[in-house]
What we know:
With 348 residues, this protein is of the alpha/beta class. The protein has helices at residues 48-69, 92-104, 120-129, 148-167, 184-195, 210-215, 244-249, 266-274, 282-285, 288-297, 303-311, 313-327, 331-347, and strands spanning 11-16, 23-30, 36-44, 74-82, 110-114, 176-180, 199-203, 219-220, 232-235, 254-255, 278-279. Helix 8 links the parallel strand 10 (254-255) and strand 11.
Amino acid sequence: MRDARQSEHEEVRIVRGTRTGATITVAVYSTERGPAIGGCRIMSYPSWREGVRDALRLSEAMAMKSALAGLPYGGGKTVAVLPGGGLDTTRRLDLITDIAEVVAGFEGRYIAGPDIGSTPDDMALIHRLAQGNAFCRPEAEGGSGNSSAATARGVVAALIAGFHHRYGVSSIAGSKIGVIGLGHVGHLAAESLAREGARVIVTDIDSSLRADAERNGLEWATTDLLRDELDVLVPAATGGMLTRETASTCRAGLIVGPANNQLADDSVDALLHQRSVTWVPDMLAGAGGIIHAVSREKLGLDAERTNAVVGQIGDKVGQLLAYAQERHVTPLQAAREISSDTDSKVNA
């Protein structure tokens, strides 16, 4: 099996873990700017082929994320497909070791980080077994720790910038914002938006999160947020949420969130643009985590300076949306053009 996207990548390795038999894909899209960086996703898929496709999509997006954020890195991704019944918790160490073996084989051309299903503790093990090629280890072990807070901070900065572009005002106080997905990043972003004075309505497939959300001043959705009349929709769950069907009925004026690969395909970007819905590309809105890791672990910045760099995501969003408007292109087209231009300057 060979996905058409695979030919666009520098290297793709698909292996079965020697300990667990799990299908592990590491996709390196580009190292033109520097070593490829990208998270390690561990989850169930309908088939191992779907896991490979996700790795290919996510690694390409990661290359754009690095370029848009101005980082001296390329893009990559690890996807480990869990068996249908999941993996026994006693085998987790074996799985992370299997992943570390694949990462080590890239000899520094790919550096892993946490993603869905993986943690800073997992990165500590990969760091030890793969010659230091992992970001976001616990701070006690010399890493930058959990990047969720930084990702959420970047999302809020992106949202405020997008709000200013879309509605002409900088304050989101009194606005109606829907957040889909209350994972580590989603709930931090939602609470931050509520502190800014917005009316924040949330939902998650795990309804047990409702009580905690309401205690923190959030409303639990009783309608479909993809069809609700909102000022802003924040996709914070898994990817592919914005399909042609949902995009054609979405009533939010602005969409900005941390979920990777929000668009089911590129045509959704064009459809949202035709309907005058402003979409902020997820590869920029969700860049706070990797900016945090690189700033702390590679650039040696302190917490205050790192937070300032993450906050610059807002400026970058404003510039991207202005670029798209001036050139009459969609936000995704603008992101590709800007990231390609950045890459050409690096290689000049």
